[in-house]
Amino acid sequence: MNSILPGHLFLIDFSTVAQDYSFIFYLAILTLAFSVVLRTTKLFIIQLLLFLALGFPAISSFTAVFAALQVGLTTVTIYKYLKALDRNYNLVIEKTHEIPPNITSGSQNGSQSSFF
């Protein structure tokens, strides 16, 4: 009887990636979480596909390419996250009238649907 082991669903093996490339694995999880925080579905789908591609043992020859893509995507995501934090800080300062309105000038209220 064939039993499916945890982590081997659909022939995806994250145990090798988690052991051999633990830093890349943590970056992938971090980027996946930041994509939810930044409310962007495109980044979430791209990151999910990249995360799943890291787990396929059949394409392990491309692991270095996927690792480089992951580092680049994480760097861009962290940059966008820091930009969103700065925008939020400036928005709070504008709403408390500490600086002249820039984001909330005109009829804009400062809301944004996605931060990426």
UniProtKB/TrEMBL annotation:
Chain segments annotated as transmembrane: 21-38, 44-73
Domain of life: Bacteria
Keywords tagged on the record: Membrane, Transmembrane, Transmembrane helix
Record protein name field: Uncharacterized protein
Species in which this protein is naturally found: Virgibacillus indicus
